[in-house]
Design brief:
The chain has helices at 4-12, 29-38, 79-84, 93-99, 101-105, 117-122, 124-133, 170-176, 237-242, 264-282, 333-347, and strands at residues 20-24, 42-48, 65-69, 87-89, 151-155, 165-167, 183-187, 192-201, 208-209, 214-225, 251-256, 287-295, 301-307. The chain is α+β, with helices and mostly antiparallel strands and 355 residues long. It has 3 domains: 1-111, Rossmann fold; 113-137 and 190-224 and 252-329, 2-Layer Sandwich (D-amino Acid Aminotransferase, Chain A, domain 1), CATH 3.30.470; 144-189 and 225-251, no CATH class. Strands 8, 9, 10, 11, 12 and 13 form a 6-stranded antiparallel sheet that branches. A 4-stranded parallel sheet has the order 3-2-1-4. Helix 2 packs across helix 11 (333-347). Residues 101-332 form the ATP-grasp domain. It is an enzyme of class 6 (ligase). Belongs to the phosphohexose mutase family.
Length: 355
């Protein structure tokens, strides 16, 4: 992984009065570009093969310029061009997954956030060590031979739910598992899925204070997952099994959520613990992150995963959410990222938010 010292040497040669914000044209790029423009930054869209035409339909979120590459593997070839434009890269799930975590970690370009989180987030054993070390309650891990009830089988990395499946016994697990993929098996928790969108700022001092900086909770969503959310319109579980119709969990979209207000203390406590543990383990995760949770009928909140960057569920709230509007009207996560970069630059503390 490229060192922070190497990155800051690049930043020292930047014209910090003319910073630009760059990301790959996918995932949450519309709000990243829109938020950057609202804060006065020039924007750069990195795209594969050709600029996507749909940006023409959204002029407020269209990048000021595009840089075209033949594939994600060619992104290292454009770093000199990005550096010449004083670019700061914003990572998102598609960016990291398609390029590959190891290749992304080596990019010689200033990146918003702490790259050291990649290792902890992408490996599910390390992720569990992090979250359980923070005192977070998670679904129980199950060994294949010990499956005696519904479990969720997940592959490592940010795959948007692709390939995930539920098994009720060892035979079903063997039938569906891809032996070439690294996987984790968790007990299936019955409840409502809440995806909690936080933002950690090491710079601001007013707000929900942590040992260093503050924690913000900007929004919540629930994911719409391919046929899993509609499949039972076709019949009972037994009828579906007889018709060989199998639930799939590929994320196709997101819907907004608001939690009952009495849950907010628990929600903030979860975010606080995760950030404090990240500060202890690897110097902290900077900026947006998402805790993926299930809320049970006993109002217990169990965390089954963390995404340590902007997630696509925040796309619902380009003009603010019921929560972010109480921080600042019309505040999106994309805009909040741009604000943090702008604040760090004005304070001469870009080293606290870039890696």
């Amino acid at each position: 992984m490229i060192t922070k010292e190497e990155i800051m040497e690049i930043v020292e040669n930047y014209d910090q009065d003319n910073l630009s914000i760059a990301t790959v044209c996918s995932h949450s790029s519309l709000q990243i570009f829109y938020g950057a423009r609202q804060e006065g930054f020039r924007t750069i869209g990195i795209c594969v093969k050709e600029p996507p035409r749909f940006y023409d339909a959204f002029p407020l979120a269209k990048p000021d310029e595009f840089i075209v590459v033949g594939s994600y593997k060619e992104i290292p070839d454009i770093l000199a061009e990005l550096r010449a434009k004083n670019a700061i890269v914003i990572p998102h799930g598609s960016f990291v997954e398609y390029m590959g975590g190891e290749a992304f970690a080596e990019l010689a370009i200033p990146t918003f956030g702490n790259r050291e989180v990649l290792e902890w987030e992408s490996d599910r054993e390390m992720e569990r060590e992090w979250l359980e070390g923070a005192g977070i309650e998670m679904p129980r891990v199950v060994k294949p031979q010990e499956i005696d009830g519904p479990v969720m089988v997940k592959y490592h990395g940010a795959k948007g739910g692709r390939g995930f499946f539920i098994a009720k016994n060892y035979e079903e697990f063997q039938e569906h598992i891809d032996p070439n993929e690294k996987f984790t098996i968790q007990e299936f928790i019955v409840g409502t899925r809440y995806y909690l969108h936080f933002f950690y700022s090491p710079l601001r001092e007013e707000g929900y204070k942590l040992s260093t900086g503050i924690l913000e909770m900007l929004s919540m969503d629930r994911r719409v997952e391919s046929n899993a959310d509609e499949i039972f319109r076709l019949g009972s579980p037994k009828e579906l099994e007889e018709a060989e119709i199998i639930p799939t969990y590929v994320v196709t979209g997101n819907v907004p959520l608001v939690a009952r207000e009495s849950l907010l203390p628990k929600i903030f406590n979860l975010g606080e613990r995760v950030v404090e543990q990240s500060l202890e383990l690897f110097g902290g995760m900077i900026g947006p992150f998402c805790l993926e949770t299930v809320v049970t009928d006993k109002l217990e909140i169990k965390v089954f995963e963390i995404s340590a960057r902007i997630v696509a569920g925040t796309n619902i709230y380009l003009a603010g959410s019921p929560y972010s509007d109480l921080v600042e009207p019309n505040l999106s996560t994309g805009k909040r990222i741009a604000q943090e970069i702008k604040l760090a630059s004005s304070m001469g503390q870009l080293d606290k938010i870039l890696s």
